[in-house]
Each structure stands twice: as C-alpha cells, then as structure tokens.
C-alpha cells in the first residue's frame, strides 16, 4: 500500500506519481443535485482522470428504500464496488468534478464499509485540470476485485435514533443552507416541509470549503467553535439527503472527532414524515 503524508487527502502530484501502482484505484464520485441539470456519469464518460472508475451514488444504494442514495447493505456494497475493481485493501482515491462535494459522501461510504485506506484528491478534478495533468474519456474497465466489508454501525443513524437523540447531549448539525434551515426557502424536493429539527445547529457545508478544498484545521476549529459545536462531543450530521452531511463528517474527522455519525435519511426523510 503506497504511503501518503496525509490521512485524508493526497495531492494531484502524489496521485500522478502513483496512478499506475497496482494497489491504487481512482474513483470518480461526482454527483449533482437534480436541479443542477448535470449528470455525473455523462461527465465522467466525457472526461476523467486516467484509470478512474465511476461510483454512482444513485446506483450503489438501498434499492428497497424510497429515499435517495441510502446506504446499501454491506454485502450489496461489497458486490457493487468489487465489480468496479475496488478491493478493501487498496488505496482508494476519491474525487468529484466540483472540488469537494459528493466525493465526501463516497469517502464516508467506503470508510463505514471498512476500506483500510481511502483518501480524497485535494481540490478534486478542478485541481487536476488546473495542473494540466492528463485526462481520458470513456469507461475504464478493471478486473473484478474482492471487497470484504467491515461495517461500522456507529457511523450512521436512523430516523428513530435521531428522534431519540433530540434534546440530549448529542449535537445535531444541519449542513443545509440557512434559508432552508430556517424555513425561508423551499426544499428542492417536492412534498417536504420546511424548517429544521428541534435543537439542531445550522452549519452550511459550503462554509467548511474554500476554493474547492476543505479549509485548514485551524479555520475549521474556529468555524465549529463559532457555531457552538464541540468536536469532542457526539455529533449527528444531517443535510438534504445525506450527501453534504459527509462534508461536515469529514471536517470533524480532520479535527480528530471520535463520535460522528450521519443521519442517512436526512431532511428528505424527516421533512416528509408526519410523525417528525
């Protein structure tokens, strides 16, 4: 397994030097909000980092749930990524097309399923392109691999678990925009009520990002402190559908937080239920 200097990120230069290593697999985890009118898969097929495979958040999902891109079972996840040629012992380098957005959710998915070494490309595809590094088009075939899942149930929360946590010592951090959090702006998905969970703290995920990269640890520490969020206390991160909440989970992990979970159903579930 190649050695990289950071537990969370690798640079485009590092990836270029290791891109042909047999133990390195590059994963394009691009996903866009439905209203954006963009397709992560179409953009991947048009242009991606050489050798990268495409991780489809809308396909590697719990197909029995009506909610979008919910975590699949460990066995289903293992089968899907194994078919892509991704093994649990490889160094998995994840990126997305905007810098840092959906790649965090893919990073978290691999982490919760037991991947030993999964990192993000610092700055994502924009940083790779800015460095004038090579690109290719089309599907990348890889030989199937074995992914042995080791699921971490403590890193994900259900509706009932979140409801039970309200008013306790767990911090609920909502990564949606302030307008959606306060009920001023409509939800992008039809049929959802506006507002937020009682006692939740609003920290729009974009405030943790600067120039397509996660802010420095010092800046993140100041950001969380300003919102009254203590990384040393339990946190459940939520958002619209469980994607941008992973940016909050990533930021907290960078700060060394130990008790961080994501509410997988997030507001798509909470705002659509009459008993919430």
Could you please describe the fold and organization of this structure?
This protein is an alpha/beta fold and 276 residues long. The protein folds into two domains: 9-151, Oxidized Rhodanese, domain 1 (3-Layer(aba) Sandwich); 154-270, 3-Layer(aba) Sandwich (Oxidized Rhodanese, domain 1). The chain is built from ten helices and twelve strands. The strands form three sheets. A five-stranded parallel sheet has the order 1-5-4-2-3. The chain is globular and about 50 Å long. It starts with 8 loop residues before the first strand and ends in a 6-residue tail after the last helix.
Gyration radius over CA: 18 Å
CATH class of the largest domain: Alpha Beta
Task: Give the number of DSSP strands.
Answer: 12
SS summary, helix count: 10
Q: Report the major sheet.
A: 5 strands, parallel
Shape: globular
Fraction of residues in helix: 25-40%
List the helices and strands and how they pair.
Blueprint: E1 9-10, H1 12-18, E2 24-28, H2 40-46, E3 53-54, H3 74-83, E4 91-95, H4 102-112, E5 117-121, H5 124-130, E6 156-157, H6 159-165, E7 171-174, H7 178-181, E8 201-202, E9 209-210, E10 213-214, H8 217-226, E11 235-238, H9 245-254, E12 260-263, H10 266-270
Name the descriptors.
alpha/beta, single chain, 276 residues, five-stranded parallel sheet, Oxidized Rhodanese, domain 1
Briefly summarize what is shown.
The chain is α/β, with parallel strands linked by helices and 276 residues long. 28% of the residues lie in helices and 14% in strands.
